[in-house]
Amino acid sequence: MRRSLFGLSIALAAALLAAGCATDQGAVSHPGVSVTRFHLGAPIARGTIRVEPARSDDADSLAFAQLSAPVARELARLGWTVADGPGPTEQVATVSIERTTREGPARRSSVSIGIGGFSGGRHSGVGVGAGGSIPVGGARQSGVVTARLSVRIQRRSDATVAWEGRAELDAALGAPLAAAPAAVDRLAAALFQGFPGESGRTITVR
Questions:
Q1: Which of 155, 173, 189, 204 could disulfide-link to 32, CB 3.0 to 4.6 Å?
Q2: What is the pTM assigned to this prediction?
Q3: Minimal CA–CA distance to 52: which of 44, 60, 43?
């Protein structure tokens, strides 16, 4: 009886070990997004709008065109006609995208297991048990990627700003949202959720 319980406990430990690894890798795959919006509370007119980079040297960048696509998608969803050809538009959405990486503390994953059973005769009622922690791999340096998206909607003729907002998220290095396209897609969806939003208030969108 004791031998079979021991074998079962080892199998359970292996399963817990695998589960611990999976949990550690995916723990921050869907982080919350910090969102702040500013506007005057007046209705924001819809019309033809062009998405442009905040920095002029990114104007002809293919990377910017690809990364800003989620912003254009959200504007179209909200009723704007997004210009994709040549020629000026009265409304413009200026977009800034930033990504920074910082080191996190060294981490060592571990899985705790317990092994329990009974020993002795039929009526002895004597229990034995053991517990411990199994380290998973060595200590490793973790990294965090911070992605920020800023958008400003304004009139081109007089530079009057109708709305602006910022969104930011942190993702573990190597996680899906650490990649720029996935991060900007998530940020844009959060930034324009409930548009125009409450002015001056920072919220977390999950």
A1: 204
A2: 0.70
A3: 60
pLDDT in tens, 121-172: 444 444 444 444 445 555 455 899 999 999 999 999 999 999 999 999 999 9
Domains and CATH numbers, the chain: 29-107+138-205 (3.30.160.150)
DSSP notation for 38-95: EE-SSPPPP-EEEEEESSGGGTT-HHHHHHTHHHHHHHHHTT-EE--SSS--SEEEEE
Report in angstroms the alpha-carbon separations of 37 from 53, 158, 186, 193, 202.
19, 21, 16, 11, 7
The amino acid that residue 149 corresponds to is L
The one-letter code for the residue type at 145 is: V
**The amino acid at 10:** I
pLDDT tens-digit series, residues 64-82: 999 999 999 999 999 999 9
Only one residue has tokens 């004791």, namely 2
